[in-house]
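Pilot study result, target chain (257 residues):
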Amino acid sequence: MRIVVKLGTSTLTHATGKLNIRRVELLCKVMSDLKNAGHELVLVSSGAIAMGVGKLNLTKKPSDIPSKQALAAVGQCELMYIYDKLFSEYHHTVAQILLTGSDVEDPQRRENFHNTMSRLLELGALPVINENDTVATAEISVGDNDTLGAIVAVNVQADLLVLMSDIEGLYTADPRKDPGARLISEVRALTPEILALAGDAGSALGTGGMVTKLRAAGMCMAAGCDMIITNGQRPEDLYRIAAGEPVGTRFFAGKEG
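Predicted structure:
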């Protein structure tokens, strides 16, 4: 399978903004093992700004755009250093791609991106993709790597997009507030009832939320790509996902609404 894995900031870091070493090491190990098994993997990684917060020993993420851009510049270097080091331990080569909205909106640039990605996968590399937060102020304001993950999955004609977040999947209500909330294991169509379940943004360091995840699901389903929302605290669940076992919430391709 060709699988795009999107890692949220809350999966990569502790609440302090510092790297969650145990979890990231396990993620890279599992993803390397899946590549060894014959799967093609693409990693869409959040975390540059949060890594910059930790690297510069700041107490919290700033709110102004220039500071976020500066932190992204510092944090992206750290992020790629870590991925390069960890994946190299399992004899896999990473490639960095930083995208802006215009890279996928302009037909020629979108084709260039597609061609580059196709060649990287043919060469056996593991592309690591993030928004170019240092220059793309609109992307920072939206903070939407869920949609970026869907754009990448559609562009590379992936079989599956996995959104690893700080929640198990889509629930009938907010599980943080309602103990009676039930996990929805399968979604076949984005009905008004499903769309109404979206909440606000989640963690303090991350900027995604269920709204962006359902938007990503719609893009994938319309393009023939399944999507799964699952808890990034258990990287080993990627084995079960690759084996087709039920994990989190799976959105089945075919109907976006």
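One observation from the pilot: The two ends are 25 Å apart (CA to CA). A full batch analysis is planned for the follow-on phase.
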